[in-house]
Amino acid sequence: MDQQLSITESGWVFGPAVKGIRMDSRLVQPGDVFIAVSGSLLDGHEFIQQAIDKGAVAIVGEKPMGRLPVPYIQVQSSREAAADIATSFYKHPSKDLVTVAVTGTNGKTSVVYWLSAILNAANIKTGLVSSVVNDIVCRKQPASLTTPESPDLQAYLDQIRNCGGKAAVVEVSSHGIVQQRVRGTIFQLAILTNITREHLDFHGTMERYVDAKATLFRMLPSNSLGAVLNADDQHFETVAKASRAPVTSYGIKAGDIRGQVLQETAWSTDIRVSGLNLDFITRINHPGRYNVYNVLAVTAAAIRLGVTQEILQREIPNLPSVPGRMQITGGQRGPMAVVDYAHTPDGLYQSLLTVRKFTEGKVWLIFGARGGRDRGKRPEMGRIAAQYADYVIVTADSPNFEDPQKIADALIEGIRQVDDTKLKLVELNRALAIHYAVRHAEKNDVILITGRGPETIQHFGNEDVRLVDAEVVEEALQERWRQEGSHVPGIS
Ligand SMILES: CC(=O)N[C@H]1[C@@H](OP(=O)(O)OP(=O)(O)OC[C@H]2O[C@@H](n3ccc(=O)[nH]c3=O)[C@H](O)[C@@H]2O)O[C@H](CO)[C@@H](O)[C@@H]1O[C@H](C)C(=O)N[C@@H](C)C(=O)N[C@H](CCC(=O)O)C(=O)O
Ligand SMILES: Nc1ncnc2c1ncn2[C@@H]1O[C@H](COP(=O)(O)OP(=O)(O)OP(=O)(O)O)[C@@H](O)[C@H]1O
């Protein structure tokens, strides 16, 4: 049996037959090393035979195994080993790139998109790894997790390097940090957007959630470009203390880099940016105060990466839309519909507040909550809905293996605590819920549909149903306009 994988004092050594690293047996191809993980739902060790049948040349796991037809290496932690093996196999791609991590409860994808746009505009070829898409400079691939498992992350970074990329901006979730998906990645800069309630099903307490985020900053080398932190966030001090690297802070109320809001309209905000030798006025063509914070995070990071004030001032007004974030339909004729990915209490609050600002009529909210995720946030989101929307329609998000009615009940409980009369309808069929709102809204009302953004599949147990909020609302609007006797193109 050829030894295709071994561990020596100086690290992992690979034989010539090794072609890739996989943690999912279903994806194994001939020549791959398969790493078996004992997960929360399944045990990867049970898929070792499948991996071998598919051509795995070596197996790594954390349990003793009987005799196998390929070499088996037992380790303490499969996830840690996976990260070490992957960084070694792909020859530490993060060291050859300026690799930037973006973490936080909300705003990660927006910051990843916008920082990479600014860096590309500054002629620094930049790839990105995000929950929406992975852009490896020479092509784009759809994403599944926010932060890929370590072998996939290292493979993406390797591809970015091979495609001539000089920098990579990586969205780092708290799951990703705890599950060692970013172990071994050398970040030059790490950005924190904010920390509010989320994922307590996974972390248990807020302290542990904050600590998971802080771990990313503990990982920053002391000689790196540093940490970029939101000075207005309640957990700023905790995370700043965790960072071994220099801290650059940003904010509206405090921070090394300060944003002063000069003028706000429905769609844009004019800001003056000052501090750290910066002083310029620019326009953010995206709605909401939260996007001022996202842009300030991008600005602080870009400055640390050597981008000039002139480039920032010129490019901030051109920052691209992020799919499924404040995506507007039907504005010309009304009612207007907004699809937004808000799925945390703070995200929902920010989203409703933003929509409220540009609504002359009533605000309709259509929302549900994801099954199998933080249950405690549901009544809180119900309370926020009843407080800031005029009409609330409770529907299904992606229930996964939970009963959609029970999820709805938890949201309704919160709504009832604030104002029973706000609850307009409970309709678990999301398409019907959207059609109902479009049929009943007045022309100057706004219908906000939250929770799923650009997602295409709703999971009901083992059944997958295709549903894209933006497509359904567009179809409903067209139907309404047809009945009103005039057809107007939907996307405005
Ligand atoms: C809670 C969590 O993070 N779970 C992730 C984790 O699951 P797990 O460790 O429990 O794994 P498991 O499903 O029990 O399976 C055990 C092992 O068997 C392997 N397996 C499984 C089946 C098979 O046929 N063959 C096989 O080899 C799996 O690849 C895995 O390595 O590892 C799996 C393999 O990579 C992920 O698919 C799974 O993500 C689930 C689907 C998920 O939804 N994760 C979300 C919560 C998540 O991680 N989200 C964060 C961000 C959230 C945010 O930003 O809001 C993210 O970073 O994406
Ligand atoms: N800085 C922010 N503060 C609070 N809410 C925000 C912020 N930025 C965005 N949001 C809200 O959160 C939603 C998701 O934004 P975004 O995708 O950028 O965040 P995210 O952290 O990447 O989320 P995920 O990792 O779950 O994709 C937006 O649609 C908006 O409603």
TrEMBL record:
Locate the residues binding UDP-N-acetyl-alpha-D-muramoyl-L-alanyl-D-glutamate: 25, 146-147, 173, 179, 181
Q: Where is the Mur ligase N-terminal catalytic domain?
A: 18-90
Residue numbers bearing the N6-carboxylysine modification: 213
What is its cofactor?
A: Mg(2+)
Keywords, ordered alphabetically: ATP-binding, Cell cycle, Cell division, Cell shape, Cell wall biogenesis/degradation, Cytoplasm, Ligase, Magnesium, Nucleotide-binding, Peptidoglycan synthesis
- Mur ligase C-terminal domain residues: 324-453
What EC number(s) does this enzyme carry? 6.3.2.-
Q: What class of enzyme is it?
A: ligase
What superkingdom does the record give? Bacteria
Task: Give the range the annotation lists for the signal sequence.
Answer: none
Q: Name any one GO molecular function.
A: acid-amino acid ligase activity
Pathway where this protein functions: Cell wall biogenesis; peptidoglycan biosynthesis
Enumerate the Gene Ontology biological process terms.
cell division; cell wall organization; peptidoglycan biosynthetic process; regulation of cell shape
Post-translational modification as stated in the protein's UniProt record = Carboxylation is probably crucial for Mg(2+) binding and, consequently, for the gamma-phosphate positioning of ATP.
The record's annotation in InterPro entries points to: Mur-like_cat_sf (IPR036565), Mur_ligase_C (IPR004101), Mur_ligase_C_dom_sf (IPR036615), Mur_ligase_cen (IPR013221), Mur_ligase_N (IPR000713), MurE/MurF_N (IPR035911), UDP-N-AcMur-Glu-dNH2Pim_ligase (IPR005761)
Its Gene Ontology cellular component terms are:
cytoplasm
PANTHER family reported for this sequence = MUR LIGASE FAMILY MEMBER, UDP-N-ACETYLMURAMOYL-L-ALANYL-D-GLUTAMATE--2,6-DIAMINOPIMELATE LIGASE MURE HOMOLOG, CHLOROPLASTIC
- Family membership noted in the UniProt record: Belongs to the MurCDEF family. MurE subfamily.
Q: What does this protein do?
A: Catalyzes the addition of an amino acid to the nucleotide precursor UDP-N-acetylmuramoyl-L-alanyl-D-glutamate (UMAG) in the biosynthesis of bacterial cell-wall peptidoglycan.
Supply the name of the protein: UDP-N-acetylmuramyl-tripeptide synthetase
- Organism, as annotated: Sulfobacillus thermosulfidooxidans (strain DSM 9293 / VKM B-1269 / AT-1)
